[in-house]
Amino acid sequence: MKKSVYSLVLMDDVIKAVDAEAYRRGTSRSNLINQILAENLSCVTPEMRMHDIFRSMADLVSSSFKIQQQRSASLMTLRTALEYKYRPTVNYKVELDRLPGEYIGTLKVQIRTQSDVLTEMFGNFFRYRAKMESALLTAAGCKGYSAAISGGTFTRRLLNSGLSEEESGQAISRYFSDLNSAVQIYFSDPAGFHENAPALEKRFADVISQGII
Length: 213
Description:
Number of domains: 2
Strand content: 15-25%
Number of helices: 6
Distance between the termini: 22 Å
Helix content: 40-55%
Largest sheet: 6 strands, antiparallel
Number of strands: 6
Strand order of the largest sheet: 1-2-3-4-6-5
């Protein structure tokens, strides 16, 4: 959505109130004024689109994840703990693109641990997961799958399938829930994970059949 520079004459008291609200929301003065005008004139801004996606997600993932407060309209962070010794924390972050093209945003999964063993296990799981996702999405006719693994971080671009805001939120939520379940199963029994892999691959196929993201 294109932006241009305009001059407005506003009362000092109005600017003080705008600045206070912009600080509370973690945004800029210009962005807040843009959102207020868009809401009153029934225009859809990128921030409104992202808010609707995150709101749809929050309704579905609150039982499995702890939603972290964010000071960015484009970012949502979810936290959970592994059912593993020391209960390490795993963060799931999704950052939406303001102007989605081939991709709607980026997913980042990070494990918080100082254990080299856990970090290596995390990498092993996500190397398997990325290969599996790429194969099944390609079989479903999707191109452009992009993922990377570095230490205790898995990063993946989320595909833009032309879904509505509500449908996008639901698709991301289904993906998060399926991915977190697979992570938990892997860490509960790494040595025997190959026995669970076929069922998990079938479940992922079911997830993307409801909406590719």
